[in-house]
Design goal:
Helix content: 25-40%
Mean pLDDT: 89
CATH superfamily of the domain at 4-80 and 226-302 and 437-487: FAD/NAD(P)-binding domain
Largest sheet: 7 strands, mixed
Strand content: 15-25%
Number of strands: 19
Structural class: alpha/beta
CATH architecture of the domain at 4-80 and 226-302 and 437-487: 3-Layer(bba) Sandwich
CATH topology of the domain at 4-80 and 226-302 and 437-487: FAD/NAD(P)-binding domain
Strand order of the largest sheet: 7-6-15-16-17-14-18
Shape: globular
C-alpha cells in the first residue's frame, strides 16, 4: 500500500512537491485554507481585466519544463511561453531611458550609448555573475545546505574553491560602485536585490547572482501569465491522483513519539506517513506546532520586504509604454536607503509596471490595458497602511504621468490593491514579507530553515520561506530538494 503524504498549502512549492511525490507513487492529499490554489501565483479578475497576484516575468522556464517531462507529458500541451526582447525598460528621474536584453553585447552597447557606461564594464560584470551562478547553482539551489553529504559531492567541493570570488565581504551596492562608472547602472543592478526582498546596501555582493539568469537565458512571459504555471502544476497533480481539499485550514500538525503522523482539520485527525508544510515556516511553528520547540534563531531573522500592489484596469493603450516590464526609478540612492532603513517610513524609489495585455489582449477589455504596479516596501510593523496606500497611489500616478506624458489617473476604470496585511492574510506570509527571511545577513542562506525537521521525523518543508528561498523558480527547486530528501 502506498505511503500517504499530506501537503499543507497549495502555493507553487506545495503544488510542485505534490506533483513530484505523486509521480513517485505516494498517495498525496493537499489541504488549502483558501478557495483556490496557487498562493502568490494565483489570478485576479475584475470588470473584464485579468492580473496575476504577483509579477509575471518568468525566468528559468526549463525548471517547469523538467517537471512536466518528469510526468511523461509534453510542456506544449499545458502552456506556452514567449521570450521577451527587450526584457525590461527603465525610466530614470533624469529623463534617460534604457532597455535591457539577454543579448549581452546589445545591452552593453545600449548602456554605453545612453549612459556613457564603458561597454567592457557591463560585459565584465555580467561574465562575473554568470560564473558565480554556474559555480554555486548546484550547492545553493539544487542541494540541501543542511546535510553533510552535500559537501562530499565532488562538483560542490569544486565550487567551494570559488567562494573567495563570490563577493561575500562587500555589499551589492559597493561592488556595483567599483564596477560601474555611472549612477544609473549602479542603480539598475542594485534593483536585483528586490528579487529576494533584500537591501542592496546591506546584503552581500554574492546576491548579484540574482540577475544572472535574466541576462544569460532571458526573461519570458507565459501566455496566461504566472497563473498558467500554478494551473499547470494543479493539473499535473490531479492527473496523478492528488486529492485537493479547499477551504480546509489545517489546525495542527500531529506529532507522536517524535514523528509527524498527520494533521487536525475541522476538529478531525487526518493521518499520514509524511507531512510537508508549504505554509510560511513562522506560522507552521507558531500556529500549527505550538507545543513543539521552535527554532527561534531562524524565526527571529529579519524578514524580507513586502509590497503595495495596485492592479489597474486602463481604458486605453499607451504606445510610449510599449514594453511589458517597466521600471520607473528615482535619481537618488538615499530614497532606497530610507525605504529599508526606517521601516515606518514609506518611500518610492522604484515603481515596477507590468502590462501583460501587451502580449495577451484578452487580459483587458477591448482597447484597454491591465496594469500591475508594485512598490517594494518594508514588511508590516504596524504602519498606517491605509494612509500610506493613499499617498502611494497619488505619488505613483504623478510619476507615471510625468514619464508617459499622460494623466494616467483619468484612465483608471477599476482597481484592486494588495498590501502587507492582505498578503499575510491571503498567503500566510508572516508580516506580509514576500520572500521569508531577508538575505541581508552574510550567512542568510544558511539561516533559512532546512527542508526537513531535525527534531521531528517525517516532517518536511517547501516554499519561499525555507531553503533555498523565494521566487517562482526557487520554489520549484525547493520542491525538488524536498522530494529528494523524502526519497532518501
Amino acid at each position: 500500500m502506498a505511503k500517504k503524504v499530506i501537503v499543507i498549502g497549495s502555493g507553487v512549492g506545495g503544488l510542485a512537491t505534490a506533483v513530484r511525490l505523486s509521480q513517485r507513487g505516494f498517495e498525496v492529499e493537499v489541504f488549502e485554507a483558501n478557495e483556490y490554489f496557487g498562493g502568490k501565483a494565483t489570478k485576479l479578475e475584475k470588470d473584464g481585466y485579468f492580473w496575476g497576484f504577483g509579477p509575471s516575468l518568468f525566468t528559468m522556464p526549463h525548471l517547469l519544463d523538467e517537471l512536466v517531462t518528469l510526468c511523461g507529458k509534453k510542456p506544449e500541451d499545458y502552456y506556452h511561453y514567449t521570450k521577451l526582447d527587450p526584457v525590461c525598460k527603465y525610466f530614470f528621474g533624469n529623463g534617460k531611458q534604457v532597455e535591457t536584453h539577454a543579448d549581452k553585447e546589445k545591452f552593453a552597447a545600449e548602456a554605453e550609448l545612453v549612459f556613457g557606461e564603458p561597454k567592457h564594464n557591463t560585459l565584465n560584470h555580467l561574465t562575473l555573475i554568470e560564473k558565480r551562478f554556474s559555480m554555486t547553482e548546484k550547492l545553493f539551489l539544487h542541494s540541501s545546505l543542511h546535510k553533510a553529504a552535500t559537501y562530499l559531492d565532488k562538483d560542490i567541493f569544486a565550487s567551494l574553491g570559488f567562494i573567495p570570488k563570490m563577493g561575500l565581504f562587500t555589499t551589492m551596492d559597493k561592488e556595483h560602485e567599483s564596477v560601474f562608472e555611472t549612477a544609473e547602472m549602479q542603480q539598475l543592478f542594485n534593483r536585483y536585490a528586490t528579487y529576494n526582498g533584500s537591501d542592496p546596501y546591506q546584503c552581500p555582493a554574492t546576491m548579484n547572482v540574482t540577475a544572472a539568469p535574466e541576462y544569460s537565458d532571458g526573461g519570458y512571459i507565459l501566455s496566461g501569465g504566472m497563473p498558467d504555471l500554478s494551473r499547470t502544476l494543479y493539473q499535473l497533480a490531479t492527473e496523478n491522483g492528488v486529492k485537493f481539499h479547499f477551504d480546509m485550514a489545517v489546525e495542527k500538525i500531529i506529532v507522536e513519539n517524535g514523528k509527524a503522523t498527520g494533521v487536525w482539520v475541522n476538529g478531525a485527525k487526518q493521518s499520514a506517513d509524511i507531512v510537508v508544510s508549504n505554509m510560511d515556516v513562522w506560522f507552521t511553528y507558531k500556529k500549527l506546532m505550538k507545543d513543539q520547540r521552535a527554532p527561534e534563531r531562524i524565526l527571529q531573522q529579519p524578514r524580507s520586504t513586502s509590497a503595495i500592489i495596485f492592479y489597474w484596469g486602463m481604458d486605453r493603450t499607451f504606445d510610449n509604454a510599449d514594453i511589458h516590464n517597466i521600471f520607473f526609478s528615482a535619481n537618488y540612492k538615499e530614497e532606497f536607503e530610507v525605504t529599508f532603513g526606517q521601516k515606518t517610513v514609506y518611500h518610492d524609489p522604484t515603481t515596477y509596471l507590468f502590462v501583460s495585455s501587451k502580449h495577451q489582449p484578452q487580459h483587458a477589455t477591448a482597447g484597454g490595458e491591465n496594469w500591475f504596479i508594485v512598490l517594494n516596501i518594508p514588511n508590516n510593523e504596524g504602519q498606517d497602511w491605509d494612509k500610506l496606500i493613499a499617498e502611494a497611489r497619488i505619488h505613483v500616478q504623478q510619476k507615471l504621468s510625468k514619464h508617459l506624458g499622460v494623466d494616467v489617473a483619468q484612465h483608471i476604470v477599476c482597481e484592486q490593491v494588495n498590501d502587507p496585511r492582505s498578503i499575510e492574510a491571503k498567503t500566510s506570509s508572516y508580516m506580509g514579507s514576500l520572500y521569508g527571511n531577508s538575505s541581508n545577513n552574510l550567512m542568510a542562506a544558511f539561516l533559512r530553515h532546512p527542508n526537513f525537521s531535525r527534531e521531528i521525523d517525517n516532517l518536511y518543508f517547501c516554499g519561499g520561506s525555507v531553503h533555498p528561498g523565494g521566487g517562482v523558480p526557487v520554489c520549484l527547486l525547493s520542491a525538488k530538494i524536498t522530494d529528494s530528501l523524502i526519497k532518501e
